[in-house]
Amino acid sequence: MEDPNPELERFRQQWREEVSAKAQAGSKAPKAPTRGPLKFPPVSQSSAGKAPKPLNDDDDHETFQSIAALPGGRVEDDVHGGDGPLRKEPQSALEHYEAAVERENQGSLGDSLNLYRKAFRMDHAVDKKYKNKHFPPSSFPSKPTNPNPSNASATVPNPAHHSLHGPPQTLKELTARCAGVSIQPAPPLIEGMAAPPCPVSSLPREILVQVFEEVAVSDVASFVRLAQVCKHFAFMVLTEEQIWKRVCIGPESGFGGMHFEWQREVLGGPLDDEILELQDLAIVESETPKEASPIPLTKEETTELLYSAYASSWLQMYRLRPRICFNGCYISTVNYMRPGQGSATQVTWHSPIHIVTYYRYLRFFRDGTVISLLTTDEPADVVRYLTKELQEAHRGGGSSHLPSAVMQNALRGRWRLSNVTDNPEANMKDAEGDVYVETEGASKKYFYRMQLSLRSTGKAARNRKLTWQGFWSHNILTDDTAEFTLRNDKAFFFSRVKSYGAGA
């Protein structure tokens, strides 16, 4: 009996060949440990006039497409989302993530969610690895910067033809390429007329030196920054010894404002004339010539004698010779830990630890006085109030409602630098470098004495650090001296304060 529908028979034959081919390929490939191959019921001859009905697997929530719905009458290749033979299960976190993305693109949100969870449990940064593998930064072309910015001069060469990935040019090539570049002068006030010359270029050198000297006296930092203007200014800043000599000898920031002898009492008042006369008599009327102390040199004489010790350069003397800065303050930050006590009402298995932080401040003045402060307040809340006026206003607990009430604990004192008499065995250059500070104590019968040493914090920052050498408490009534331990105390570092100006 002939088949009434030859096209259906042809389709069945084609379908059987495809199923047998897939079965042979699946037997050669490694078997997946999950579900077996898909099975279809045999097609009966009685249902020749009907198309085969697909099966629905409600347990796995998978839907088979109809044969008639597939283009060319092809059955879907893999129920599990594959494009051929069954693939083996993902092992690494990246494979789970890739399978999850594939399931999500196919619409199986439940399977993709489970795979995402497994991937992130195995590696919390698997998404970054997936991004680096499939979307590396090199796959996106970098956006070139603006080759000719709007604020560039017309004489600047246009680098638009440069390759972004080409080798960098050598220094010789860059020098030869930029040799013809010139700085365009200011346009003339009237079109067609010659542009006026630079006013500073027409100044005589003598007048320019006087201008630079005034700048250096007011602010040495501004004077040094003049070297960035042009080569001529840079040469004058580095080689003009007349300016640096004025800076060194002057009292503004040089050694004319340094004190190598006590100039004030501990409380800030002037020294009595009787004490000065007794000191002079002790020098002149010594018992034997061997015990007679040498007459101290003046600051000007000492500076002249030390000129040769610093390579006969006033600039080197200003940089290297120890000195105190008045346009800021010295701050010491102390941190240490101490054990605490547990709660009396709760049972705890650990003991608390307290981190204690406090600050020491020192501000020096040109008249030989100093302000010393020990507090837990941070520098931003203290440095602006380190003035003599606020110290007197808050003495004795007055004006405690003001923000500057931190000055209630400030101590008055005096300071001086070391000299040859403090260390007779050393030469004049090495004898300098120590700072002696004496301040009032916690009560009237005590005063504190500090010995600090000026050090450098690096190659560029000179004389910006004060390290501890000793700290003592002296009893005026009994003339006893006790030394404080310096286990937790740290060095002082200089910090410039704009509100101080050039210093007081």
Automatic annotation (TrEMBL):
GO cellular component: cytoplasm; SCF ubiquitin ligase complex
InterPro entries: F-box-like_dom_sf, F-box_dom, Hrt3/FBXO9_C
Residue ranges occupied by any F-box domain in the UniProt entry: 197-247
SUPFAM superfamilies: F-box domain
Basic and acidic residues: compositionally biased ranges: 7-20, 74-94
Key word Acetylation present: no
Keywords: Ubl conjugation pathway
Membrane-traversing stretches: none
A Pfam family annotated for this UniProt entry: F-box-like
Record-given protein name: F-box domain-containing protein
UniProt lineage: Eukaryota, Fungi, Dikarya, Ascomycota, Pezizomycotina
